[in-house]
Amino acid sequence: MAKVISNEYIGEGMYLLKVEGKFEGSMGQFYMLRAWDEYPLLSRPISIHDIGDDYISFLYKVVGKGTKILSKLKCNDTIKLEGPYGNTFPKVEGKIALVGGGMGVAPLYLAAKTLKNVDIYMGFSKETILLDEYRYLADTFYVTVGKNITDILDVSEYDYIMTCGPMPMMKKIVDMAKGKKTKVYVSIEKRMACGVGGCLVCTCKTKSGNKRTCLDGPVFLGDEVIFDD
Amino acid sequence: MAKVISNEYIGEGMYLLKVEGKFEGSMGQFYMLRAWDEYPLLSRPISIHDIGDDYISFLYKVVGKGTKILSKLKCNDTIKLEGPYGNTFPKVEGKIALVGGGMGVAPLYLAAKTLKNVDIYMGFSKETILLDEYRYLADTFYVTVGKNITDILDVSEYDYIMTCGPMPMMKKIVDMAKGKKTKVYVSIEKRMACGVGGCLVCTCKTKSGNKRTCLDGPVFLGDEVIFDD
Amino acid sequence: MTNLSVKFGKLNFKNPVVMASGTFGFGKEYERIYDIQKLGGICTKGITLNKRDGNSGIRVWETSSGMLNSVGLENPGMDKFIKEYNDYLKSLDLVSIVNIGGSTIDEYIESVEIACKNDVDAIELNISCPNVKQGGIAFGIKTDIARQVVRKARDICNVPLIVKLSPNAENIVDMALMCEEEGADGVSLVNTFMAMAINIDKRKAIFDNIYAGLSGPCIKPIALRMVHQVCKNVSIPVMGMGGITNYKDALEFIMVGATCIQVGTANFINPRIGIDIINGIKDYMEKENIKSLDEIRGII
Amino acid sequence: MTNLSVKFGKLNFKNPVVMASGTFGFGKEYERIYDIQKLGGICTKGITLNKRDGNSGIRVWETSSGMLNSVGLENPGMDKFIKEYNDYLKSLDLVSIVNIGGSTIDEYIESVEIACKNDVDAIELNISCPNVKQGGIAFGIKTDIARQVVRKARDICNVPLIVKLSPNAENIVDMALMCEEEGADGVSLVNTFMAMAINIDKRKAIFDNIYAGLSGPCIKPIALRMVHQVCKNVSIPVMGMGGITNYKDALEFIMVGATCIQVGTANFINPRIGIDIINGIKDYMEKENIKSLDEIRGII
Ligand SMILES: Cc1cc2nc3c(=O)[nH]c(=O)nc-3n(C[C@H](O)[C@H](O)[C@H](O)COP(=O)(O)OP(=O)(O)OC[C@H]3O[C@@H](n4cnc5c(N)ncnc54)[C@H](O)[C@@H]3O)c2cc1C
Ligand SMILES: Cc1cc2nc3c(=O)[nH]c(=O)nc-3n(C[C@H](O)[C@H](O)[C@H](O)COP(=O)(O)OP(=O)(O)OC[C@H]3O[C@@H](n4cnc5c(N)ncnc54)[C@H](O)[C@@H]3O)c2cc1C
Ligand SMILES: Cc1cc2nc3c(=O)[nH]c(=O)nc-3n(C[C@H](O)[C@H](O)[C@H](O)COP(=O)(O)O)c2cc1C
Ligand SMILES: Cc1cc2nc3c(=O)[nH]c(=O)nc-3n(C[C@H](O)[C@H](O)[C@H](O)COP(=O)(O)O)c2cc1C
Ligand code: FES
Ligand code: FES
């Protein structure tokens, strides 16, 4: 049980939840969140947005029952966090772009803080969020609203691209990088139950066979993922 | 959907919930309360404690999931009320005693206000509640703590006794009145589902056959009720 | 124009929403809440030939997203039912279906005869009742035993006959096929699942009868599967039910092939649920430009 | 001194709490969460003779107090399982049970042979798998078909053999009696209930396979009833499961006669649930002055 520090609405149906405590975790990893007792049944996987000495934060969008309950949390309410789960974005060096679509920008914050000197691309459909915070961490900063972020991304400029967002966007980037030196890492979202690799409901098909998104992922080499699912 | 005015803890694990609006209802009747969406499944039957031009109030004890949720309601929260359901205490004249045990004192408040010039007996196991409020409505006022209220009740003093509380207490009073002119009315608690007489899960056995506690009751002539259930 | 009406064999329902047996009394009880004639139909509490007092002890228990009931078919008996309720039910502008139970075949048959003689709209034969001659195992478990009841009932029944199936049946598809073979006008499913609850402090079963019937949202995924299986296998119309609590649930049952849907336990969550579901289906059809439910029935 | 240990036929469990197949990986996955050797036992993910990639499409869906899964027995195949996990499992201080599935009798038998040759602690034969020769109807539906698998498996199985029953069985008591007759060391029940879910916007079933398996708290009242029925009818030991989420649920299954209990879906609510249940049972026994679970087993 941990204590909520704050839970702010930041636009686009998204909230920034800050929880008190010393938590572990690296860029790309996630926690299973539970701010209820029995209902709904399953906990919700949410990426680490940021982590500090005495707090952890999550950026989430309200889409259904679970995130609705999360959105009602107030300062001093309690929440259960299990994690950190999953692998991390790789700690590489070179010219790096972080590309987030919509809610997919969430894990890129900690990635930008960790990797440093990155370019950040953020695509939104209507409203923008946290521009100041992300801009501050970026060498070069690109934002599109109502237009595909992939339209302004030149993959060949980069050694590495780390991306999180809608599947079509990530697939597009992987396709654009085909045959180029650019390595693309994608963060995959799958429905989960256990979060620890024990139930196999989150399988992601890859060229080297089935992988568990919760344990072997959520970060995969883009080239490895079989997207037609 | 109605709006909560207040929901105060008043001791003995009991709360007084006041809800805004013009509600119908008479002494002895109850509402089905629901301050949640899907879980738990069933609404909870709670007697009318008091009713005014622009409010209704309920006095309830936290015993399980549903009343626990009720106890967390705050001013301006919403609650669903269905009712009023059930019959009422009879509007009689003569010498009347209202006898409540524990949480059974709840419906006696409106009864005292409606019938006037009554004696009130309240029995508690540990703490007392709302003594000032009830005393104000009583001709003579008796309270016991940690002792049976039936020990100090002389049934033959009364033309009518209306009672609500634990089954053994009510049975005792009915037994004490056997062969006397005193008419005893008891308010029965049974687990309910529909509250309107449609499901027959709340059957109360009486000498004139099965009755639905929610529709034909909750108030029955004590002599009629078959207590060995 | 959106048209919610459905034909269920010879029966015409102004909409597919029917209140389930045992959860809606004899309709009258809900009159003070809303105009029940807005409903497509109602099923009465289960009636047996003779009056029954029902089971002793606790009769309802909440479970995770469901409830157990052990009412034990408390009812006034067929004659008294006819005397007290039949004229009322026939005066209503909806399809009123008399749900009939029994503990021997003869009992069933006698009840059906009386109901037919009094010209009820339709009969729903509840074969989930314990069969006294078979040691209390329900009629509706084994197809062969159920066939005997259905055949004899069909023989003498001159009003539409709907057989209500138990999810505890050994093979619910066989059971439905049998009903079709024996000439039933339709089947309805599911009745409650046999289940139990325990008080660990008293180290005793909650119910005097030990087992009780489970209903409510918790059973919906299983009920829906059973309705799907049955609809894929029979050509008589099906009334689907089990855990329906909103119009979306109702549409799910229609999409797997149900002609009508029944709503039971949800009446206890919201006594106006019938109206809410009808309005929800109507709005959905208008939004999706669906003229008749035929367009989506059995689409899955 | 409170003693939580139980004897399940020839197997000794230090406590009755066993993690259910398919919800606890191969144990290893939960090592980082707690010392899994505190558990009475674990059942592995279902293993088939050959590697299986499992089902396509969505594999999990939440329902009211439950979940549907359509994993489709994804597993590395028996040989690879033995190579990668058997030594690890045997090194653990707990009873590790290998759950075996198959789509033909031959497949089952070959898997059992390999497992026995490698001296596994025990086998749990999952007969809920679709039988390819019977058009995909699960082996565990009809007693006669299940008997063929159980008999052949028993013939060649020289480690304790537990047969895991499906709640979709036509007659679960007959099924358990059959297992007893054929010499099984015990039965475990229930597996998941066949069920379904629908996306009304897409007008499609959620799962590529249409049907999926329902588990979690919603099924507990039915599972408990089935375990009760089986325990009253067989004398071999029973592992009870279905919706157990806390020590009270566990005690309920023990009070209806289960020797061990299994915990599945609750691992997803709380990954430390196994420990919590063990501690809960222990505290209860101390408070109630119960020396051994024999005192309350089957008390209902
Ligand atoms: C590794 C990982 C990291 C994620 N990080 C974030 C994040 O940082 N911010 C954020 O807003 N969202 C994130 N998501 C998506 C988030 O988990 C879902 O939006 C959320 O679970 C929806 O829950 P709900 O109860 O509101 O929706 P409902 O639709 O009511 O949920 C029903 C069930 O489906 C699951 N589900 C529904 N949508 C998704 C989805 N897109 N991905 C996975 N499961 C889903 C739920 O977990 C639940 O089990 C992440 C998902 C994964 C797998
Ligand atoms: C006509 C009537 C009037 C009532 N008036 C009051 C009142 O004014 N104040 C008050 O505190 N209580 C009253 N009760 C009792 C009250 O309904 C229960 O205490 C309450 O339902 C418990 O709900 P729970 O979720 O907290 O407990 P749980 O034990 O979690 O409830 C589980 C289920 O059992 C039912 N249940 C449990 N205890 C009782 C009980 N004693 N009577 C009926 N159903 C029960 C619940 O309604 C629910 O369906 C009344 C009961 C009836 C029938
Ligand atoms: C309290 C109660 C009483 C019931 N009585 C009957 C009955 O008399 N006859 C019958 O066929 N079904 C009876 N049922 C079963 C319902 O009609 C329905 O089949 C079942 O509850 C599943 O639907 P639901 O989940 O919508 O409630 C009863 C159900 C409940 C909850
Ligand atoms: C995701 C998942 C995978 C499962 N896989 C298997 C399996 O491989 N073999 C098996 O016998 N049972 C399997 N089961 C069934 C469980 O072992 C258990 O019988 C069932 O879930 C009921 O228990 P519960 O309600 O505690 O989960 C699986 C269940 C789930 C939820
Ligand atoms: S969520 Fe269970 S294996 Fe990934
Ligand atoms: S609660 Fe349904 S008849 Fe009384």
CATH class call of the largest domain in chain A: Alpha Beta
- Percentage of residues in DSSP E strands of chain C: 15-25%
The third-level CATH topology of chain C is TIM Barrel
**Overall number of domains of chain A:** 2
What structural class is derived from the secondary structure elements of chain C? alpha/beta
Unreliable residue runs of chain A: none
- Count of folded domains of chain C: 1
Mean model confidence by pLDDT of chain A: 95
Concise synopsis of the structure shown:
The complex is a heterotetramer, with two copies of chain A (229 residues) and two copies of chain C (300 residues). With 229 residues, chain A is mostly beta strands.
What can you see in these coordinates?
The complex is a heterotetramer, with two copies of chain A (229 residues) and two copies of chain C (300 residues). Chain A is built from four helices and 15 strands. With 229 residues, chain A is mainly beta. Chain A has two domains: 2-85, Beta Barrel (Elongation Factor Tu (Ef-tu), domain 3); 96-224, Rossmann fold (3-Layer(aba) Sandwich), CATH 3.40.50. The longest helix of chain A has 10 residues, at 167-176. Chain C has 300 residues and is an alpha/beta fold. Helix content of chain C is 31%, strand content 20%. Chain C has an eight-stranded parallel barrel, surrounded by six helices. In chain C, a hairpin with a 4-residue loop joins strand 12 (198-199) and strand 13 (204-205). The mean pLDDT of chain C is 96. The C-D interface holds C 63-66, 68, 170-171, 193-198, 200, 203-205, 210-211, 214, 216-222, 224-225, 228, 243, 248, 251-252, 255-256, 296, 299-300 and D 63-66, 68, 170-171, 193-198, 200, 203-205, 210-211, 214, 216-222, 224-225, 228, 243, 248, 251-252, 255-256, 296, 299-300. One FE2/S2 (inorganic) cluster binds at residues 192-195, 197-202, 212-214 of chain A.
